[in-house]
Design a protein that fits this description.
Elements lengths: L3 E4 L2 E4 L4 E7 L7 E6 L6 E6 L6 E3 L7 E6 L4 E6 L8 E7 L11 E2 L3 E6 L1
Parallel strand pairs: 2-11
Antiparallel strand pairs: 1-3, 3-8, 4-5, 4-9, 5-6, 7-8, 9-10, 9-11
Length: 119
């Protein structure tokens, strides 16, 4: 059974930074992704990274502010979030299994970590 665990969420003021981490019990040759879900909204794509780390993709609203990276030796993916905005407030989920924007292409999901940005 593969386990995916996020960490690093918290409360931050607008303009601040947070780094989320995602550790998987078994990495294999999978792409990884970050998604987020705000109250009353559907889960949406944030960023994805290929197995090698050579390819990344971001939703437009976070381009230039967020950076996804990975350390395969540590089975860990990161999401560095800078210049945070109140609209970034959401539960952030890590997913493993694809290099894609569509949630249904990912096989494994974490439980999520809350990010709250105060204005």
């Amino acid at each position: 059974q593969v386990q995916v665990v996020e960490s690093g969420g918290g409360l931050v003021q607008a303009g601040g930074s947070l780094t989320l981490s995602c550790n998987a019990s078994r990495f294999s040759s999978y792409g990884m992704g970050w998604f987020r879900q705000a109250p009353g909204k559907e889960r949406g794509f944030v960023a994805t990274i290929s197995w090698s780390g050579d390819a990344t993709d971001y939703t437009d609203s976070v381009k230039g502010r967020f950076t996804i990276s990975r350390d395969n030796a540590k089975n860990t993916v990161y999401l560095q979030m800078n210049s945070l905005l109140p609209e970034d407030t959401a539960v952030y989920y890590c997913a493993m299994g694809a290099f894609a924007r569509e949630p249904n292409k990912y096989a494994y999901w974490g439980q999520g970590t809350q990010v709250t940005v105060s204005s």
